[in-house]
Prior knowledge:
By secondary structure, the protein is α/β, with parallel strands linked by helices. It is built from 10 helices and 13 strands. It has helices at 3-8, 27-38, 69-79, 96-114, 151-168, 192-201, 222-234, 252-263, 290-296, 304-328; strands at 18-22, 42-47, 58-61, 83-86, 122-128, 173-179, 181-183, 208-210, 216-217, 219-221, 240-244, 250-251, 269-271. A 7-stranded parallel β-sheet has the order 3-2-1-4-5-6-11, with helices on both faces. Helix 5 links the parallel strand 5 (122-128) and strand 6 (173-179).
Amino acid sequence: MSVNDRRAGGRGGGEAGSVVVLGATGFVGRHICEVFGAAGWTVTGIARGAQDPSTPHEIIPLDVVSAEPEHIAGLLAERGAGAVVNAAGAVWQATEDDMTRANAALVEHLVAATARLDARPRLIQLGSVHEYGPVPRTGITEDTPTAPVTPYGRSKLAGARALLDATASGEAEGLVLRVSNVSGPGTHRASLLGMVAHHLATSAPEPLRLAPLLAHRDFVDVRDVADAALAAARSGASSQVLNIGGGQATSVRSLVLRLTELAGAAAEIVEAPSAGGRPPEAEWQRMDIGRAQRLLGWSPRRSLDDSLRDLLAHARAAAHRESLSSALQVAPTTMALSDHR
């Protein structure tokens, strides 16, 4: 298959083309690679970490922010990329500088690189509901003013604007998918649902202490997010923001309780404000996903129950692997095979 053949496919239901996925080894990126691969696309992943031997596609180790735009452009041209999906970013256990670098500067570098290409790939930027900031109890549309109050939200908004400004000036083509809270298999342990699932999967005897669960938030399964990225790559829409979410406000407390029910084990969860902290606010969040339904033909297919069930199963499998790994880490003086861990 020639470079032009790989670049041309993917839109309007035609033959698939070639996609480059940034953040390919991350929670969302892994699922995006899987969905594009299943749809027949040639998948190339980019990540700062090493490749997982079980990954069926190539992962190129690269720090996009540190790389020269000419190098990035050359890589995309060599791969014949018809689409680039940016699933990279920093949120958990990251400093504000980390977030600015990974969520904003990376997009600026990517746009600068693709502007050098004669045949520019379609850019799909995964944004965040946190770009909107706190909103009244009404559906969040794409026309809702953006007023982020967290470093994460501000850095993601800067990245979105970098792409939108480039599409408005004709230097790029693509969409911003503004994604709600993501759940499902592989959810990060530092997130609320990932933390609860890990606690349940390991049958930890001590209680899990959480801040008061007063919020209602919009949740969407990670596999539905991956489906949305594929639909965006195939579409002809450009220079727009599209909300990607579950389309409903769900009690966070009810999700935590449902996880414990699905686990089938008694677990003590204690809600208590942090010492000296401000009383928590009852955040309410629901995304209007009508525009994505109209322009992409996309809507979420997985129920929250399915998402929680698969999250718990993944957490249990991860806990089992970690338990086996710990059991094999025996001192060399007591087990000759320890050098072959």
